[in-house]
Amino acid sequence: MTPKHFLDLSDLTAHTVRDIVDEARHRKEARAGLPNGTPDADQPLAGKLLALVFDKPSTRTRVSFDLAMRQLGGDTLMLNHNDMQLGRGEPLSDTAKVLSRYVDAIMVRTGPHENLTELAAEASVSVINGLTAFSHPCQILADILTIEEHRGPIKGQKIAWLGDGNNVSVSWIHAASLLDFELHLAVPENFRPPEDVLSWAAERDAKIVFSNSPEAAVDQAIAVNTDCWVSMSDNPEEAAARAKAFEPYRVTEALMNLSDNGVFLHCLPAYRGNEVEARVIDGPQSVVFDEAENRNHIQKAILLWCFEG
């Protein structure tokens, strides 16, 4: 059978995305009050093994996928870049074929998106995008679940994104195209999301709006999103230039007061005083830890979708 890969939201239908979010919510509600280490009652993935391949450091992706698989009754095999022959130059195609003989699915968190797509092309089991430099689909589904828990259905609502037009913003654009909400972006001109992504969204009549100011993007939004300004791979000169460019896009209390009692989201790790004021991320509108928890529930729904065959 051809494996079902979870690579980008743009590969999915609106119906599939909606089903994954709804399944995550139902699973979360069904195990309310249980210790985290207790498996779900049905254990639908008993006997299944998930490889977790990390080319980059991780906290939430690593723990949420490991916990998700365990709660579904399965098990995980943790593999870091330096633990594998990849670190010595083994072709990705060989790694994909070998892992496909050992495990039932592969989650990969890597840099170049091409690493993900090559693994998927060569693997005979499902491959899941835990993060690439291009996109972060698991995160956005957790964000949508979190928003809907606090503010109701996302359809037709205004969502704001401030700062870098990065991999997280790309997946937000994909989601807006599928779930019919307005995405307002306030980003510096030199840091806009890729033009091919914007063209893809325009072909689908997505409601993607570039705002002239952070204030315009946030005004009456039900959710305000941002991300860190500096990547682990940025050198000091690049980091200084990025910080200067993003300074006007810091999420402040004054900005949040312009929203429609909006919730604040951040995929974490966050740097208080840079992209967000401490009084915002630690304040009453912040839902960042609900958002982090919901990574677990979304990963479970993604895994179940992949294993449906």
| CATH level 4 superfamily of the largest domain | Aspartate/ornithine carbamoyltransferase
Name the shape in a single word. Answer: globular
CATH class of the largest domain: Alpha Beta
**Could you describe the largest sheet, including whether it forms a barrel?**
5 strands, parallel
Mean pLDDT: 95
Number of domains: 2
**Helicity level:** 40-55%
Portion of residues in beta strands equals 5-15%
Radius of gyration (CA) equals: 19 Å
Q: What's the total helix number?
A: 12
End-to-end C-alpha gap:
8 Å
- What ranges have pLDDT less than 50 throughout 5 or more consecutive residues? none
Oligomer: single chain
Strand and helix order: HEHEHEHEHEHEHEHEHHEHH
Assign the CATH topology of the largest domain: Rossmann fold
Q: What's the arrangement of strands in the largest beta sheet?
A: 7-6-5-8-9
DSSP E strands, number: 9
Protein name: Ornithine carbamoyltransferase
Keywords: Cytoplasm, Isomerase, Transferase
Enzyme class: transferase
InterPro entries: Asp/Orn_carbamoyltranf_P-bd (IPR006132), Asp/Orn_carbamoylTrfase (IPR006130), Asp/Orn_carbamoylTrfase_sf (IPR036901), Asp_carbamoyltransf_Asp/Orn-bd (IPR006131), Orn/put_carbamltrans (IPR002292), OTCase_ArgI (IPR024904)
Short description:
The protein is of the alpha/beta class and 309 residues long.
Provide the fold topology:
Elements: H1 14-30, E1 49-54, H2 60-71, E2 75-80, H3 92-102, E3 105-109, H4 113-122, E4 126-131, H5 137-151, E5 158-162, H6 167-179, E6 182-186, H7 195-203, E7 208-210, H8 214-218, E8 223-226, H9 236-246, H10 253-256, E9 263-266, H11 278-281, H12 288-307
Domain Aspartate/ornithine carbamoyltransferase Asp/Orn-binding: 155-306
GO molecular function: amino acid binding; isomerase activity; ornithine carbamoyltransferase activity
Family: Belongs to the aspartate/ornithine carbamoyltransferase superfamily. OTCase family.
